Amino acid sequence: MYHYKTDATKPQDIDPAWWIVDATNETVGRIASKISTYLQGKHKACYSSHINCGDKVIVINAEKIRFTGKKMNNKTYLRHTGYPGGQRSQTPKDLLRKGKGEEILTRAIKGMLPKNKLRKPFMENLIVCKGAEHKHEAQQPKALPLT
Fold it and tell me: Are 130 and 99 in contact (CB under 8 A)?
């Protein structure tokens, strides 16, 4: 009789890597799906769906993202103020005009993560910056391969 041992990934065994992504002239959905994969750790051999084994991702130039087709004017983002009749809608064009390009990318990435207790820890590993400056040079992030 054979006894096989299954090695399960433990939270203390995980060493998250740091990645940096330049969102200049990148399509929102394509970049968001790649980032969500790295936030969950699905690119690693030690991936486990029940623990946070993902990496940390820094996104720079979030206000320079683009949409394909007519999504810039036709797509709407809904939110609610919490008061009666308080539903508000905005298009990506409105958000970019107000300087909130990072909100577009954050919403897209959040929508591609699993809807469970791990979504919040995954989102804490995401840093979206306006412009090319970020304060995490000490971690020496590597460029995330988008292709």
Answer: yes
Dihedral sign, CA of 126, 128, 129, 132? positive
CA distance 112 to 119: 10
| Structure token digits, residue 132 | 């090319």
Report the amino acid identity of residue 28.
V
Nearest to 32 by CA among 41, 18, 44, 21: 21
Per the structure block, which two tokens stand in for 6? Answer: 């299954």
Task: Give per-residue pLDDT as tens, 65-88.
Answer: 999 999 999 999 999 999 999 999
Question: Considering the entire predicted model, what is its pTM?
Answer: 0.91
Strand pairing category for 56-60 and 18-22 = parallel
End-to-end Cα distance, the chain: 46
Calpha distance 138→49 (Å, rounded):
30
CB-side neighbour CA atoms (13 Å) of 84: 0
